[in-house]
Amino acid sequence: MSQTLADLQDRTFAKATPATDSTYPPERRLTAGQLAAYLDRRTYAVVGTARPDGRPHAAMSMYVRRGTTFWLPTVSGSVRARNLREQPWLTLVVAEADGDAHIVVILEGPTETLPLEDAPEDVRAVVEGDWPRAWIRLRAERLLSYAAEDAKP
After folding, report:
1. Record's InterPro entries (predicted)?
2. Range of the domain at 105
3. Rg (CA), the chain
4. Could you give the number of structural domains in the chain?
């Protein structure tokens, strides 16, 4: 049976510190249906990687979600792809709005950078043009979500 986003979120919070648990209280977390709908209506996220010297690197990236796996197209020689060769772990942050209407989903997990042909055909079909030179596959192992009081996930 494949893991769902809600299962992943439940497992993440089961291991969370008291600080994380109080920052993302249960009543503000996205439900199973909200998680899938929110992540599927979004196209871009901020992704974080670590440079070989330990400094952080953040960049915008398109993503395509399939279950708890996220596919990110990349160009040849990108800093992100180089960073992932050294430290194959990625943080993906999908956020919108501000104040009492903001929503955020944070995902983390191990990655692989794969040749174009190794991404599923339906994933490749989402990207217009022939600019991607490889795909980064993120297999999410952690998921945190928060929807402020007036948010509309």
Report:
1. F420H2_bilvrd_red/Heme_oxyg (IPR052019), Pyridox_Oxase_N (IPR011576), Split_barrel_FMN-bd (IPR012349)
2. 5-147
3. 16
4. 1
